[in-house]
Amino acid sequence: MSAVRVLAAMSGGVDSAVAAARAVEAGHEVVGVHLALSAKPGTLRTGARGCCTIEDARDARRAADVLEIPFYVWDFAERFTEDVVADFVAEYAAGRTPNPCLRCNEKIKFAALLDKAVALGFDAVCTGHYARLSVVDGRPRLARSADDGKDQSYVLASLAPEQLRHAMFPLGDSTKAQVRAEAARRGLQVAEKADSHDICFIPDGDTRRFLANRLGPRPGKLVDDATDEVLGEHDGVHGFTVGQRKGLGVDRPAADGRPRYVLALEPVSGTVRVGSADRLAVTQIIGSRATWPSGKALDGPVECVAQVRAHGGTAPAVAEWLPDEERLVVQLREPLRGVAPGQAVALYCPDPDGDVVLGSATITATS
User: Fold this and answer.
1) Residue 23 is assigned to a ligand binding site
2) What is the tens place of the pLDDT at every residue in 12-60?
3) Which one of 51, 52, 200, 304 is the catalytic residue?
4) Which of these is catalytic: 52, 104, 126, 304?
5) What domains appear along the chain, each with residue ranges and CATH number?
6) pTM of this structure
7) Residues that bind ATP, according to the entry (predicted)?
8) Cross-sheet strand order for the sheet of 220-224
């Protein structure tokens, strides 16, 4: 790629710092920006939980100083609250299980941030995501990274071709160990900084309490899916997700002595249906709001690999896009467990140089 103007999104972590460094080394004109996503950022991180703290902003600034690039902090807190946090709460209230990282990439980093970057004359937004991005026959090609354990193509699979045309992922061919070693060689203080985990706007990791504080009590019943027996009560379907085993609040074991799992959520009636693990098996997924990173939709049934979680949850499948119904139908050749409406299903074409993302859709139903 010839030299272009690049806006490097710098979270304060090692990945985005090295990504920015590589963009500088490639000869691009790079400006660093840290996104302030919280109206009241914490002063310090708690271990590896959360991000977007004051400490993170300072770490990003120090990295930019080492790289000798301009650095700014942009306030995206209001947009983040509306497009990510509010969406997260609303989805749980409706009995669905959203992925806020996917929504943040779609609505913030490659929509709000990208729009502002382009308006200011930048050609691309550079991030520290682990994914491979190239152009083949004039179309974007999004593929898995070299580091299977860190691959983030799943949370980028909902991006549209025009968003990917202005994206840059310099870490796609590297492993996490290589990135940390490079950070140390470059004198970046974040070389050994712990990765952030869990949901960034729930730094203590207590999702149930976070939702309860915003939605309040919405009492309902816990019901055995096989017998319709009422096993207990709960304070709201937002405290549960399909596949959950712990914290069900059931005071007696199943008749066969096996653990119970959440099988389905019914927000209108407030019912949480539970049952044995074998009833979690899913062989068909229906999706809507499909996106195609290359700009090319599936044409007829396609053999592929389906993924339903950021890490893991993969199975060989046959997928078909029904354009008249705006519906994606995925038949799994091997059953998957814990697949919930609201999650995303990403489709991959196996490739020795990194499985290629064919498309993504929001799961609306399973069977």
Assistant:
1) no
2) 999 999 999 999 999 999 999 999 988 766 544 454 445 667 889 999 9
3) 200
4) 104
5) 5-128+170-192 (3.40.50.620), 217-278 (2.30.30.280), 280-366 (2.40.30.10)
6) 0.92
7) 9-16, 35, 128
8) 230-234, 220-224, 271-275, 261-266
